[in-house]
């Protein structure tokens, strides 16, 4: 038992020392963040367990080691439970709120919707980001759009799954718009721009079209500034629209930059003349994506049998425990140790990508307009003030870049802040993308800019 106790105490002391060193490195690499708590906690833990290991008798060592193991097992059991419940709770809450509102809520998992459509003879594909699983190192190209001309299963936040047919380059438009004569305005952005999770006619582009504007929607889920610049150069540049609206979502767009800049190919889009000529390679793009998704489909079918847990016969949730759980993200969040959520880390590359986007658009005598979308985190009933403070600081950095580049700035946050009931703009007043009312409000203010632009120039 003495050896067992020494090993347990030694390993625990080593863990605390590792946390201390990790906090030290992070604080040196990044701007000041909430690392003082980690210093105190890990430093005290290391000293305590090192003292017990070196100074205490065997009996006390055994008792403390058993207590340490019990507490450790309990903590990780709680973390795994919270990780499991995270998705389940969102779906459960939405379904319950829909029931109270008399709205029918589709309780199927998206994988089941996919299977049902396939079984009915419809060639459908789920819209998701296959790039994490795909090995593009040996690929001829890096796709930026999605599969063209196919039935796509998107998301469900308001009760029904959004299913639409992609255009000839895999974006959320009707076919036939890729002609200079058909497009005056282009929207660039992530899933909010793409139109998650509402019908096509209810998203930003759809509302603008109803108002009489000729719009092409080039929004794509999980896109950060590097990918958005690439999409602009590949698909908007050939059309030379009068205005490009760069729609920035504060919830994760800047974080997307951190991931996408690791791609050497994506970084090449900072070069003025670089292009993959993707607009002429859709057949190859379709082939690559379909092969990958079909491969993932087989895995998802097995996953749906083993990892999708049914609750009360209705709800399914993914029990997705990954290596990130070692850091206890769910538990730390609930205890107020928000870590990255509070760190104001702004990448100067953001300005480079936006500057290149501006130059690209101005080269064809177009205009780039920056649209700022706020996160639900600002309006939730239990506000995470650490997160809100982070968003405020990030917004100031973003605005500084936009103003330095002399770009028009449409601030949707101020619009929603002045709304009498901001939560009514989100599905069931809960976390998610905008609902139809939210998208309508965004489109209304973009349309106002377009109208003023027309009056100012008197040409269209």
From TrEMBL:
Keywords: Membrane, Transmembrane, Transmembrane helix. SUPFAM superfamilies: SGNH hydrolase. InterPro entries: SGNH_hydro_sf. The chain crosses the membrane at residues 7-25, 37-54, 66-84. This is SGNH/GDSL hydrolase family protein.
